[in-house]
Amino acid sequence: MSLNLTNAQRAEVLTQALPYIQKYYGKIVVIKYGGNAMINEELKQQVMEDTVLLSLVGVKVVLVHGGGPEITETLKKVGKETVFVDGLRVTDKETAEIVQMVLAGKINKSLVNLLGTKGGRAMGISGIDDHLIEATVKDDRLGFVGKITNVNVKPIMDLLNNGYIPVVSTVGCDKDGNVYNINADTAAAYIAGALSAESLISMTDIAGILMDKDDPSSLIPHIDIKDAVKLFETGVISGGMIPKVECCIDAIHRGVKKVFIMDGRVPHSLLIETLTDEGAGTMVVEDKNNEY
Q: pTM score, two decimals?
């Protein structure tokens, strides 16, 4: 969409973004990227543009990505059926190899390539590189689905300190070299925590936490952990939103200052959330009464 702004209006837009740029300058922001925003080509282009823009104005952006739909599609092509238990993909040895191939190979490198075409300096790494994500078996029923035991952020920090946007695919490993499929929301929470990130932005397929799941206008813009507990108890947070909010709380307990759950289907939602008053989703903090 092209907006016919005068030069004065363009200048006004930029000056309004200034306090937000100052707030995030030099700070680490982890973006968990997946879902519809990754499947829709136009949205993908916009997310990459937003990521590069944030990086160029001095934000240290780390992009953590999943790729569930593409993994399912690839498994289908090789004749392997996908089975889920409690929302997690049952992963045998062969499936783990395919997950590694799709996430660390195809998706990771295509995102790095796309960031490069937008003028960004990106480097793709996986949770296997330098044992970034160490894991063990989460549940014997799930096979090689990993429970994270340690995060080594040195490779990410090395890339950030050299001006790169690290693009992290969520596969992990153990000391014996086994490869694990890691839930992307969980991986992003652990990585953001280990980096003491200013914020974690989780791009999802819904507007945020809704008081009424069928009414997008019932968005709850701002909650803390106490609020989240009440929303769990009353069933407002239910279904697929439960693990997402649990990951938000986990990230805050691990030292992330604020977590945003936002709709990745909204054009430029990343910039709306970080550089405007408006916001684009639900912000989760530890305690609303103690915000600085």
A: 0.92
Q: Which residues contact 217 (CB under 8 A, 6 or more apart)?
A: none
Please give the Cα distance from 266 to 201 (Å, whole number): 14
The pLDDT of residue 204 is above 50: yes
Cβ–Cβ < 8 Å for 115, 51: yes
Strand partners, 281: 262
pLDDT higher than threshold 50 for residue 290: yes
What's the pLDDT tens digit per position in 17-41?
899 999 999 999 999 998 767 888 8
Q: Measured between alpha carbons, how far is 83 from 58 in angstroms, rounded to an integer?
A: 42
Q: Which two tokens stand for residue 216?
A: 């997008």
